[in-house]
Request: fold
Amino acid sequence: MAYRMIDLERSGSVFIATLDHDENVIDPPFVERFNDVLDEVTATSGPRTLVTTGSGRFFSTGLSLRYVEALDATELHAFLSTIDHLLARLISAPFVTVAAINGHCIAAGALLSLAHDYRVMRADRGFFALPSVDVGIPFTRGMTALISRKVPPPWSDDLAISGDRFGGREASSRHVVHRAVPEDAVVPMSVEIAERHSGKDAETLGTIKERLYHDVLEALDS
Reply:
């Protein structure tokens, strides 16, 4: 069992994955566990959707800097490739996915949310940011394609170049997230969206996503 825990529960047609370890930083055990989650939901027959949320004040603060700072260039490239693969799986999942952003959603954590079909963010507290430029770890080509595809310009460029933080209301006004709601409505609204789309045909939806995001998937797979 990965020590970066992701708890998976099911309520009817909706699977709820709760990132539940400190700031939900992303390291190899986290990636492994999230892939396990996708395996389980994908293997389930009948209507199903996935809602991903965090715990406490954090959705995810991104890469574990403690882990990546110990890597050489080759090792870092290999690790980022595993994240690209996870993002590709999520963006092309044959079921609807919703990121219920309960708190800070930073860097690779923000990329994880962008790979979901829908994003609901807490309005009053928590920040959305892509501070790669300040951390010194450039986005991969696939991550750049994901940002450009999921966030409209000029906000996509501003997010990537400035590294600035947006609160939920501002993120909504810039079309980074679909809804900004009170804290107690984040997960319920996300579940409501997921339930509304739970009956989609998996094969058809998977094909649509693969074609819709062909350029992003190609960049992530490269």
